[in-house]
Amino acid sequence: MKDKIVVKINDEEIKERELEYIIENTKPNKKINPKVQKKEFIEGVIATELLVQYAKKNKIHEDEEFKIAMKYLEKETLAKIVIQEELDRIVSSGETKVSEDEIDEYLKKDPSLVSQFKSVVNEKLKDINETEKETYCEEKLRAYVRNLLEKMKLGLKQGEFIKKLRSEANIEYK
């Protein structure tokens, strides 16, 4: 499938795929109609491209500070991609799955969490009978703890991955 050109600014073509990437990686304003939002993004892309063309024309991209910034940006981007790929691999492998026993153990260690949850549920669900409140509270609390523990496991796995990379690297402090 051919990548459709959305806009051409001087000699630079902005294609549909590039625009989609920009939209996906920008926090959109959910209150704006998607068609209006796309137009706004296109206008933003045009403004950015005009500034880039101006900068290149004036050789700003040859400045040493720019080169240092680009080197750092490239490293940061590569690191983010590697981390995301590793986290995706970890999640899909099931390494962060949390068992019911782990949830029970966590709740035993932090009983105040149960009372805090019950307090919030009682406040929000005044019109529901006590049995339904208890069931709702238990389900929401367990889902919250499961999510929390999965994130903790994921963070540990990420730390282990970085530790492994460090152990394989030759690092010299100077």
**Neighbour order of strands in the largest sheet:** 1-2
**Tally of discrete structural domains:** 2
Tell me the series of helices and strands, N- to C-terminal: EEHHHHHH
Number of helices: 6
Descriptive overview:
This is Trigger factor. It comes from Clostridium oceanicum. InterPro entries: Trigger_fact/SurA_dom_sf. There is one protein chain. The chain has helices at residues 16-24, 34-57, 64-93, 100-109, 111-124, 130-168; strands spanning 5-9, 12-15. By secondary structure, it is mainly alpha-helical. Strands 1-2 form a two-stranded antiparallel sheet. A hairpin with a 2-residue loop joins strand 1 and strand 2. The mean pLDDT is 86.
Concise description?
The protein is mainly alpha-helical and 174 residues long. It has helices at 16-24, 34-57, 64-93, 100-109, 111-124, 130-168; strands spanning 5-9, 12-15. It folds into 2 domains: 5-62; 100-168.
